[in-house]
């Protein structure tokens, strides 16, 4: 799209790809450009080595986005994607580059909560890791059961989980979000409880509230256009310059 009114960048979860959001484009206005991203190791980047640290992944995405910041844009990320979207926003602000008009953070607790509850899924045995992924949902069972498919996915999963689990907030670093932002999650998500989601209110004066839905970690997968519609509302409000109003 040569001159979109706005761009929305969508960042996927650990072990996932742009396919997590493949159906979302139809729910947004036709003059918006919906940008589906892939971390190295999947999609069109399947031949590249998966990235194992947050700083490198953020630099990778930053290089890809630089020529696409000429229009108003917004970020939405789920789980690992929320970490990436948050860090990208901070990196753009630090470099005095255009920042998103709005940031959507889904399925990831606030930095303090993440630091207080360390996990090590990337160190599980192959069988334990498959069992954990089956419990979380989001990965087709036939992929977990097929030795060949699992052999392709396992290195990506381990790299992504290691990236997420090894991230820690620097003591002297400001993690406050410099743009309007909204948090999304689920009531029964074992990886981001409602309390951990609500903790994001501490990380910026432009916090627009926390929306909690029924379901687990992949709460949005069965909700059709409900989440995209809410994202559209938030982006429209930001584009219109609406003041941030906390919501429950």
Describe this protein's structure:
Strands 2-1-3-4-5-6 form a six-stranded parallel sheet, sandwiched between helices. It has eight helices and six strands; from the N terminus they run ββαβαβααααβαβα. By secondary structure, it is α/β, with parallel strands linked by helices. Strand 3, helix 2 and strand 4 form a beta-alpha-beta unit. It is globular. This is Thioestrerase.
Give me some keywords for this one.
single chain; 248 residues; alpha/beta; Rossmann fold; six-stranded parallel beta sheet; 6 strands; 35% helix; 14% strand; Thioesterase; AB_hydrolase_fold; Thioestrerase; TEII
Q: What is the CATH H-level superfamily?
A: Alpha/Beta hydrolase fold, catalytic domain
Q: State the end-to-end CA separation.
A: 36 Å
Structural class: alpha/beta
Compute the CA-based radius of gyration: 17 Å
Number of helices: 8
What string gives the helices and strands in order? EEHEHEHHHHEHEH
What is the CATH architecture assignment? 3-Layer(aba) Sandwich
| Count of the domains | 1
Measured as a percent range, the helix fraction is: 25-40%
Strand segment count = 6
Biggest pleated sheet: 6 strands, parallel
Q: What is the residue-mean pLDDT, rounded to a whole number?
A: 91
GO biological process, one term: lipid biosynthetic process
Domain Thioesterase: 7-222
Family: Belongs to the thioesterase family.
Organism: Streptomyces griseoviridis
């Amino acid at each position: 799209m040569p001159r979109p009114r706005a761009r929305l960048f969508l960042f996927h979860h650990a072990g996932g790809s742009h396919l997590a959001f493949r159906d979302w484009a139809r729910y947004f206005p036709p003059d918006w450009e919906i940008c589906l991203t892939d971390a190295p190791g999947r999609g069109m980047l399947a031949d590249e080595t998966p990235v194992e640290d947050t700083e490198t992944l953020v630099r990778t995405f930053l290089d890809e986005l630089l020529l696409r910041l000429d229009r108003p844009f917004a970020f939405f990320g789920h789980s690992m994607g929320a970490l990436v979207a948050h860090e990208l926003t901070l990196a753009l602000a630090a470099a005095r580059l255009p920042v998103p008009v709005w940031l959507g953070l889904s399925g990831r607790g606030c930095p303090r909560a993440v630091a207080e509850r360390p996990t090590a899924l990337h160190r599980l045995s192959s069988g334990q890791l498959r069992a954990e992924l089956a419990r979380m949902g989001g990965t087709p069972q036939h992929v977990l059961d097929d030795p060949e498919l699992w052999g392709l996915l396992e290195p990506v999963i381990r790299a992504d989980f290691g990236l997420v689990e090894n991230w820690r907030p620097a003591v002297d670093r400001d993690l406050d979000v410099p743009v309007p932002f909204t948090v999304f999650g689920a009531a029964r998500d074992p990886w981001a409880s409602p309390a951990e989601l609500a903790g994001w209110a501490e990380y910026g004066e432009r916090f627009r509230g926390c929306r909690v839905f029924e379901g687990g970690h992949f709460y949005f997968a069965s909700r059709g256009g409900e989440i995209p519609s809410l994202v559209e509302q938030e982006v429209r409000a930001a584009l219109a310059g609406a003041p941030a109003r906390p919501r429950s």
